[in-house]
């Protein structure tokens, strides 16, 4: 079938575009073809991920371009236009494809062929891949593949990508499609339409835009307010829009109403092609099993109970089960520190290695357990078909906030950690919904805030009972968790009304039949996400940690501190004998360290912002703590330990830190921390964006510095105002 | 067809599970209406109600051999007639 006709040099290297509906196993096929090696980036100016893989097939070098999953090629936004641009060779970063592979779900052929029928209009060598063949067969679907191939005029192959079945046939078929001259595309539309497309070409040429692809002109006519209009850069947009409107008017007058005509004609054509080729047995066991499962899982009562249990399980996993793994990471980090400590004495280099580099790597790896847990659950739920049901159940609730059911899981996950939460917004196809969800996700009270809450609550909030039964401390803790979630509602609404205005996006969602999740798909997905986090966000998080280390270390003279550290290390060799000496030197070391951080750039920044934090009831020491905790909120505890001269090794339950805070005073002797100050600090940390890692993940997901900067600005502003109100109102109430 | 009277039944008026209807038209030309058509809700097709989410919205339907979830506001764009 595919013996090389002639050694055509142009065929040595082939670019192939891979496209398909969502949930057709496209990524799995991509990974199977490229062996998991892919370069991942972003297309410029849009949030669309660019995934390109390379592999050898015989004497050919194949470049495979993965296009985002889509139901149609009718671009309505710059994001959707990317696929059209790549396919037409208009995308500068990708070579024009020599062939297109269209992957479809074999069990749902009719709807999936809609996209195929549009791709056919591109007039490129095309291969149709009927994926999930094993499932389709077991569901009683029968397809006459040869007959289908003959009717469609393209090679058709069957695969079960998750089992690696039929993968080689795909490239075989691509070569076959490239080598055999394509059949002339069927003229689906009435002649009047092609006449209009021809006239449009003449109009465009007359207006300075020669050589527009026929496909683009067809899209301009068919997509009312579509994105393809902007592809014609020369003509005046208003004139072009007016012309297109007239053209559509002419077509409507002759009985071809746009947009209904396109879907009607394509689906009629599909039905003709499938007649006698595609059959589904009426006694479809799987479907009825799916029906029975759905009766329970989407039921008012049982459905909600199961949903709540699944969400609880996920939350438990990322909040609690990832704990031991995170401790392991910390253990490794300590081991690395000891190793460095054993190799060199205290000094700037050691400080850079331990507090800068090892801490930086640790601050990246520490998030992996949560990311792995969340994405394992997401992949399982998506692959078995439950994810769509979860969105179905939660949609009404989330529309009240202006979002959709798909935003629920990312937001809920953010209560454990905003990083996997932000990464999980990928399940939301609509750009505006996804952006709003991403921007409010860091408001959810994550586990890193807990140490701050615990320190403040147990030190300053009395352990009394409200109304005789409610613990005051527990109430304050609950309030801290509630404040972010409650504020997220008006803020999401505000963002929807201002920054991300536009028509409500369709929620229209496919509910796939239930199936057992495939381990390969789940593992692939988890690996893919974790790798993306480490490689693309990790480097930025690492850089932030090192920069903040440098700001806290320089420009002070650390000679005395290093000498003390050296002496202490020697003394620690026999701690019993030198107990007194150790205590004495430790105290000196702590006070030297405290002085150094106060003089560092970070300390100066803290002092510089004192006038700004005074109205919150804070002094410059708390200011430094707030500035220093930019990489991560929990850093404020060790920073305050250092500033209050206790050394950096304290944790939130350290009695000496509690005492130091309780005894800290203003220069005039008034106590520094009062209940309103403690509350204002907690409220600030509940709402601020002091988490470099989250901001870097937002930067990575949005492919722009604009959004992390915006998130930081709005959250800091919000945190400041809320802390100000808390302190001022609190102080006046306490009178 | 765009001038059809609004007295026609709409898809969101189907209130019980198992009810069937035939699609006459999808009203509108914005992204929601286009998506509905692209998903196969076109003239002449039969559509069946499969179930309702806990708060009665969205609704699960079956069409062209697969299941789809539509919000009521989306189903309201679909003009239907009862199918025998």
Automatic annotation (TrEMBL), chain A:
Question: InterPro entries from the entry?
Answer: Fe2_transport_prot-B, Fe2_transport_prot_B_C, FeoB_GTPase, G_FEOB_dom, Gate_dom, GTP-bd, P-loop_NTPase, Small_GTP-bd
Protein's recorded name = Ferrous iron transport protein B
Binding, GTP = 20-27, 45-49, 66-69, 131-134, 160-162
Q: Which residues form the signal peptide?
A: none
FeoB-type G domain sequence ranges: 13-180
What gene makes this protein?
A: feoB
One GO cellular component this record assigns the protein to is: plasma membrane
Q: Identify the species of origin.
A: Thalassoglobus neptunius
Entry's localization field: Cell inner membrane
TrEMBL record, chain B:
Annotated protein name in UniProt: FeoA domain protein
Q: What SUPFAM superfamilies does the entry give?
A: C-terminal domain of transcriptional repressors
- Entries under InterPro entries matching the protein: Fe-transptr_FeoA-like, FeoA, FeoA_core_dom, Transcriptional_repressor_C
Which organism was this protein described from?
A: Thalassoglobus neptunius
Positions of the Ferrous iron transporter FeoA-like domain: 9-82
State if Lipid biosynthesis is listed as a keyword: no
The protein's matches in SMART domains, at most eight in alphabetical order, are given as: FeoA (SM00899)
Signal peptide segment: none
């Amino acid at each position: 079938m595919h013996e090389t006709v002639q050694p055509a040099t142009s065929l040595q290297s082939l670019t192939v575009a891979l496209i398909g509906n969502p949930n057709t196993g496209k990524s799995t096929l991509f990974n199977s073809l490229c062996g998991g090696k892919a370069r991942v980036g972003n297309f410029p100016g849009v949030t669309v991920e660019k995934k390109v893989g390379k592999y050898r097939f015989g004497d050919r070098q194949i470049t495979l371009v993965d296009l985002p999953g889509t139901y149609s090629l009718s671009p309505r936004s710059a994001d959707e236009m990317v696929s059209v641009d790549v396919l037409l060779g208009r995308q500068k970063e990708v070579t024009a494809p020599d062939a297109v592979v269209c992957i479809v779900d074999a069990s749902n052929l009719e709807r999936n062929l809609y996209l195929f029928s549009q791709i056919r209009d591109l007039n490129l060598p095309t291969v149709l891949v009927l994926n999930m063949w094993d499932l389709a067969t077991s569901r009683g679907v029968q397809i006459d593949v040869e007959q289908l191939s003959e009717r469609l005029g393209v090679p058709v192959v069957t695969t079960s990508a998750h089992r690696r079945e039929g993968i080689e046939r795909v490239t075989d078929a691509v070569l076959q499609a490239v080598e055999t001259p394509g059949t002339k595309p069927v003229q689906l539309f009435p002649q009047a339409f092609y006449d209009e497309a021809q006239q449009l070409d003449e109009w465009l040429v007359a207006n300075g835009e020669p050589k527009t692809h026929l496909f683009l002109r067809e899209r301009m006519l068919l997509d009312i307010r579509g994105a393809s209009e902007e592809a014609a850069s020369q003509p005046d947009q208003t004139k072009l829009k007016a012309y297109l409107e007239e053209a559509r008017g002419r077509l409507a007058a002759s009985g071809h109403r746009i947009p209904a005509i396109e879907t009607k004609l394509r689906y009629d054509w599909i039905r003709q092609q499938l007649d006698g080729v595609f059959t589904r047995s009426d006694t479809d066991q799987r479907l009825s099993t799916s029906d029975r499962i759905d009766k329970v899982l989407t039921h008012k009562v049982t459905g909600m109970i199961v949903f709540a249990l699944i969400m609880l399980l996920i939350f438990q996993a990322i909040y609690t089960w990832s704990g031991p793994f995170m401790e392991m990471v910390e253990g490794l980090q300590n081991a690395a520190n000891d190793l460095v400590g054993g190799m060199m004495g205290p000094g700037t280099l050691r400080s850079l290695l331990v507090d800068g580099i090892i801490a930086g790597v640790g601050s990246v790896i520490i998030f992996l357990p949560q990311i792995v847990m969340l994405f394992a659950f997401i992949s399982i739920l998506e692959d078995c078909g439950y994810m769509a049901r979860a969105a179905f159940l939660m949609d009404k609730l989330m529309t009240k906030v202006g979002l959709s059911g798909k935003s629920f899981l990312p937001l809920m996950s953010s209560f454990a950690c905003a990083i996997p939460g932000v990464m999980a917004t990928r399940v939301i196809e609509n750009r505006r919904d996804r952006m709003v969800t991403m921007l409010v996700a860091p408001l959810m009270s994550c586990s890193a805030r807990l140490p701050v809450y615990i320190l403040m609550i147990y030190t300053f909030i009395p352990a009394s009972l409200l109304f005789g039964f409610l613990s005051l401390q527990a109430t304050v803790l609950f309030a801290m968790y509630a404040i972010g979630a409650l504020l997220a509602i008006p803020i999401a609404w505000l963002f929807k009304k201002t920054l991300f205005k536009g028509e409500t996006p369709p929620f229209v969602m496919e509910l796939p039949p239930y199936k057992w999740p495939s381990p390969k798909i789940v593992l692939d997905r988890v690996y893919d996400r974790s790798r993306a986090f480490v490689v693309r966000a990790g480097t930025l998080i690492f850089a932030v940690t090192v920069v903040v280390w440098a700001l806290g270390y320089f420009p002070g003279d650390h000679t005395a501190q290093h000498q003390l550290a050296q002496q202490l290390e020697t003394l620690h060799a026999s701690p019993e004998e030198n107990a007194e000496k150790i205590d004495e030197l430790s105290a000196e070391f702590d006070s030297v360290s405290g002085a150094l951080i106060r003089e560092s750039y970070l300390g100066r920044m803290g002092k510089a912002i004192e006038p700004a934090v005074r109205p919150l009831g804070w002094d410059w020491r708390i200011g430094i703590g707030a500035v220093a905790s930019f990489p991560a909120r929990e850093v404020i505890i060790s920073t305050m330990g250092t500033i209050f001269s206790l050394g950096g090794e304290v944790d939130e339950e350290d009695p000496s830190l509690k005492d130091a805070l309780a005894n800290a005073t203003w220069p005039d002797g008034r106590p520094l921390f009062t209940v309103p100050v403690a509350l204002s600090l907690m409220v600030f940390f509940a709402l601020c964006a002091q988490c470099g890692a989250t901001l870097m993940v937002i930067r990575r997901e949005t492919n722009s510095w604009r959004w992390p900067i915006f998130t930081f600005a709005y959250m800091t502003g919000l945190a400041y105002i809320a802390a100000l109100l808390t302190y001022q109102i609190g102080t006046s109430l306490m009178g | 067809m765009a001038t059809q009277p609004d007295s026609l039944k709409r898809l969101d008026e189907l209130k019980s599970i198992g009810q069937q209807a035939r699609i006459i038209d999808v009203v509108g030309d914005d992204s929601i209406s286009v998506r509905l058509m692209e998903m196969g809700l076109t003239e002449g097709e039969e559509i069946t109600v499969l179930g309702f989410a806990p708060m009665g919205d969205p609704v699960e339907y079956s069409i062209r051999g697969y299941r789809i979830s539509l919000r009521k506001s989306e189903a309201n764009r679909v003009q239907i007639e009862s199918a025998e």
